[in-house]
Specification:
The complex is a heterodimer of chains A (about 280) and B (about 675). Chain A is of the alpha+beta class and about 280 residues long. Chain A has helices at about 10-40, 60-85, 205-210, 220-225, 245-250, and strands spanning about 100-110, 110-115, 120-125, 125-130, 135-140, 145-150, 155-160, 165-170, 175-180, 195-200, 215-220, 235-240. In chain A, a hairpin with a 4-residue loop joins strand 2 and strand 3 (about 120-125). The longest helix of chain A is centred in the N-terminal third of the chain and has 34 residues, at about 10-40. Helices cover about 65% and strands about 0% of the residues of chain B. A two-stranded antiparallel sheet of chain B has the order 1-2. The chains are: A alpha+beta (about 280), B mainly alpha (about 675). At the A-B interface, helix 1, helix 2, strand 7, strand 8 and strand 9 of A face helix 4, helix 8, helix 10, helix 11 and helix 12 of B.
Chain lengths: ~280, ~675
Amino acid sequence: MNLLDPQGPVAAANSTILVDSVFIMLVIVVPTIFAILAFAFWFRASNPKARYRPEFVYSGRVEMVVWAIPALTVILLGGVAWIGSHQLDPAAPVPGTGSPVRIQAVSLDWKWLFIYPDQRIATVNTLTVPAGAELNFQLTSSSVMNTFFIPQLGSMIYTMNGMVTKLNLRADNEGKLQGLSAHFSGDGFPDMMFDVNVISPLAFPDWVASTAKTDAVLNADSYKKLMQQGIERGRPTYRLEDPRLFDLIATQHIPPGPGPELASEAGRSHSGGHDAR
Amino acid sequence: MLGKLDWSAIPFDQPIPLVAGAMVLVAILGVLAWVVVKGHLPYLWHEWITSVDHKRIGVMYILLASVMLLRGGSDAIMMRIQQAVAYQSQGYLPPEHYNQIFSAHGTIMIFFVAMPFVIGLMNLVVPLQLGVRDVAFPTLNSVGFWLTATGALLVNISLVVGEFARTGWLAFPPLSELSYSPGVGVDYYAWSLQISGVGTLVAGINLVTTVLKLRTKGMNYLRMPMFCWTTLASNLLIVAAFPILTATLAMLLLDRYLGFHFFTNEAGGNVMMFMNLIWAWGHPEVYILVLPAFGIFSEVVSTFSGKALFGYRSMVLATMAICVISFMVWLHHFFTMGAGPDVNAIFGIASMIIAVPTGVKIYNWLFTMYGGRIRLATPMLWAVGFMVTFIIGGLTGVLVAVPPADFMLHNSMFLVAHFHNVIIGGVLFGAFAGFEYWFPKAFGFRLDERWGKAAFWFTFTGFYVTFMPLYIAGMLGMTRRMQHYDVAAWRPWMIIAAVGMAVLTIGVICQIMQLVVSIRNREALRDRTGDPWDGRSLEWATSSPPPVFNFAFNPDVRGEDAYWEMKAHARQQSFAHEEPEYQDIEMPRNSPTGFVCAFFATIMGFALIWHIWWMVILGGIGAFATFVVFAWRDHDEYVIPAEEVARIDRVNLEERRSLVSMAGAV
């Protein structure tokens, strides 16, 4: 999950900006730290060679320089931020080979549901994508906030109930990656890690076809069961009954997840999670 | 009768909070018993609890902060151990417990450690630096302190009665709404912050008024010590920002108590509104904390370099620039919400702009040291340690202000490392520097240097060993608040961080040892001149500890670094050793208003948390009645007769005078 080992263009651009910004700042920071230590050492009271200059308390030239150094650094970095923000807007297209794959991600308590509306399949806690294709994500949440993040593909984004966020990514190399939720969402939060399988574009249709043969069906009813609080250790797959399921969730036609089932009225409510531990 | 409260609220099945709570309770009862048996109760009541003396209140703030630092630190130790062991296992803390710990850790460290520490130092020092006898509203000051203590007490009660929030320290909805957090945890969180928030707000109003209205003769704005300027800036931010917090939490409470829909998923509630509001308070809050620390470092660097602060006016400008810009950057806390590139870029750049005045400050401290005669006493060590550490924190801060970089680092361990880098390296180092620097002023004896230096080195090293690995873990994709994880690459860094935590703990122990050893050797460490560090500002112009009226005569200020000027002046003209003409001094009377008010506020807060409505009414009426009784008081001041002033002032007048006239000889 190393951020400096990007597996797609977005992550590569993000981490380039990250590293470049650090180096721009190090140019200023390293000499400054060195100067602090050097001054503190050289001007120690016990050093007879250091000249005591109590009258040196203002210098227009020095002030010019000390305002200019951080200001120039910030102007440079501000440019990086402005251009970077526009080029790497999560909603900006990331052209790839072949036709884009639409994926609708829903954060549930405490698992990820990935709906492939065009392929009419859905998976939980595992995301399978073809290498090289543009991945168009639409994201929402069934209940509380989460953040969708695959570190080696780049750019995380919030998922919020009743709202849809957009993110475009691309995975360039076949292999296994990991994703996670980067926004605390309750007791089962650490188990919201998911697998990302980047497979060859040729194998993708086969994977779709085999997944479509699954017996389990995802519709409003089975979705409501799935959104109960709990941790999913398996990797279930579904046939998608209605490709508009995501819209029903995002527009709250399916009401938000229920939260913990109340054990008692008392203040110390035990977590309603079925498998919180 | 007791609302939601019953025996199930006590966690008999969870040994850790129960034992911890029992130990704290025994300790408190033990101290209380000792106080009563030894007959110290009247002293405590008259001299401390009902005191409206800004110095006493400052000391009590710092004591509160120190006690809560131990509590928040214990939470930190438990979290570091959990993340070190919870690799492919559940560790020793179940999620419902771990989640309370990190929520309480953040809440406590910000609201009940950092805030009271800096407010305590401002209270203690600012009136002295301004050359005045008290703050603008002495009784209000006491109310502010006791309401803060109420908040801290409620947070600690949640350890044994009920639970604390499991939502993180900012309690984001919808997780903090009733449907997802039905327990009392969020209520404990919200009510303790509402009550202590009122305390902070009145402290802010008080200190702003003090700086603006109560300055001694000749102390115009551009002669104020830097710490007074940063106090002004910080408290202006308190006055502007804390009402936002109060309003935001009030809306959350309306959602939870009366079925409103400000931030719920349903019925048009909007979580994004909460994010905006809480950070509109939350970002100024970090500057509320760090600006006073900047002020402390300005005083320390200048004093221990034996030079006036370099570029004073530039520093004033930088301080006020930070004060204003800090209100314009809150959105950088949620670049990942998908707001769009223009919004993100503008707030990213605004955030970077704050780095300019902050950088200027660093350079001005640097040039203050240049050509100085630097004594590396403990406060100066903290200052140099701060400068080095804070630059690194600033670097990573500017880095996460670049939106595309933040898209990778948001909410990660990298972020955790960043804000600890600036809060520990900035605020805590500043608080410790101020503690070491002003302790002799507050208590009349210096702190032991050997233990002080040991505390610095262990804390400094411990900080790096703990938090540098967290930067790396963040670069490896690790997000914050994970109760357990299965990623092998994160493990070694979590173990190193736990080792660092042990080193930090040794630092804290050294700090405690320093206090113990210094109290034992207090006679040897006694400060008879009132000026142990060869200081430059007016707090050093009076005895240590200062008399209740601070100054027998309000000083006449003729330039920057007022006391330094006086010392230089006295050197040139032979100092007149005649007895000054003392006069009567009027001082505000002690008042139990603050304590009684807070007593009723505690009852009311507890009752609100547990839905015990009759008790809410009782507490509310009690607090209001206390205020009414105070408002209708007949006598609010008492007179210290001139002979008494003379008697108090004469005690070490000669020593202070000889110091002033001898100063040039060194």
